[in-house]
Amino acid sequence: MAIFYLSLGSNIHPEENLKLARKYLKKNFSLQKESKIYKTKSEGFVGNDFLNQVLCLKTNNSAESIIEILKNIEKKIGRKERKEKFSEREIDIDLLIYDQIVGQVSGKEIPHKDIDLYRFVLEPLLEIAPNLIHPKHQKKISELWNENLDRFS
To answer: Which fold would CATH assign to domain 2-152?
Structure first.
């Protein structure tokens, strides 16, 4: 079975949409751990605050299959396609890490390139998996956190 990590984010009815996302994810995968919910300011645009969370799950599904399931869950919750990279989101579910895979999977970079760029991804991941080794950087999540702490302050 594969262990994988997801990042959830929403700033449109965020409590409701994160709850729905977790419900759908639990129907498809075995939940192992979940971070608390973090409230963060919108980045790259002016908008409502986001609620963010990271989950650790277990599955027999391939990374390709997970990505397809995540897209379907986002659609069920009502995510609308937007051209802007930074914009309001009904729900955003990103595959952060899938076992030790490094590379492109279904057009997505695994591990996700934003893990150490944004506090709203790295901090909840640190909470539930401080000793997890980032497959590409070959560093613990706690080390990545310490390296980026000044930038996040």
So the answer is: Alpha-Beta Plaits (3.30.70)
